[in-house]
Specification:
By secondary structure, the chain is an alpha+beta fold. The chain is built from 6 helices and 7 strands. Helices cover about 35% and strands about 30% of the residues. The longest helix has 15 residues.
C-alpha cells in the first residue's frame, strides 16, 4: 500500500467509475482538483504497475473518513480488499474510522456490509441523504459504519456536519435558506 501520485489519477478514477454508481462519485474535474489541493489522500495497491485497489482517506482531528474504496472487479474475492482494509487500520492505529454504505437492500449492498463486518466494522443505525456530487442527480441514502466502536448520536451529528462541510462542500443552512 502506498500513496497515489498525480500520474495515477485517471487510472484510479477509472477503477472508481467501474465500482460506483454516478451519484456516488464526483466528476473527474472535481476529483482531480481536490487531490491537487491535498483535501484527501489516496492510498493504492498495485500489481504489475497497475492500480488494483484504491481508497480515499479524509483526515479529521479525531477520526478518519474512508470515502471511496474499490478493488478491480476482476480481482474481487481474492482477499485484496480485506488486506488493504487491515493495512489502513494499522496505518491509523489511534484513530476512529467511519465510512458510508447503502442500506441493505439487495445482494450487492448486503455483501458490502458483510465484508466490512468481517473486518470488525460496526453498522450504525444513523443515516442521511448524501448531498449530490453531480448536477441533476439526487444523493444516495447512506448509513454509517464505524471502527472500532459504535458512534453515539452526538458523535454522529458532529461527524455528519464535518463531512457535509469538508467532504461534500455542502452548507445545510444555505440550502434551507437560513
Amino acid at each position: 500500500m502506498k500513496l497515489a501520485n498525480q500520474q495515477q489519477l485517471k487510472q484510479i478514477y477509472q477503477l472508481f467509475e467501474n465500482s460506483f454508481i454516478p451519484s456516488e462519485l464526483r466528476p473527474y474535474d472535481a476529483f482531480s482538483h481536490m487531490f491537487y489541493n491535498h483535501d484527501f489522500q489516496i492510498y493504492i495497491e498495485e500489481q504489475d504497475s497497475q492500480v488494483i485497489a484504491a481508497l480515499i482517506v479524509w483526515e479529521f482531528q479525531d477520526y478518519i473518513f474512508l470515502e471511496n474504496f474499490a478493488v478491480d472487479q476482476h480481482l474481487r474475492g481474492q482477499g485484496i480488499g480485506g488486506v488493504f482494509l487491515e493495512k489502513i487500520k494499522d496505518f491509523y492505529p489511534n484513530y476512529d474510522m467511519i465510512l458510508e454504505v447503502e442500506e441493505d437492500k439487495n445482494d450487492l449492498t448486503h455483501r458490502r456490509i458483510q465484508f466490512y463486518q468481517r473486518h470488525q466494522w460496526l453498522f450504525n443505525d444513523f443515516h442521511y441523504q448524501q448531498p449530490s456530487l453531480r448536477e441533476n442527480m439526487v444523493g444516495e441514502e447512506l448509513y454509517i459504519m464505524s471502527y472500532p466502536s459504535l458512534l453515539s448520536e452526538e458523535q454522529f451529528l458532529k461527524r455528519k456536519k464535518e463531512l457535509f462541510h469538508k467532504v461534500y462542500q455542502y452548507d445545510e443552512k444555505k440550502e434551507s435558506g437560513e
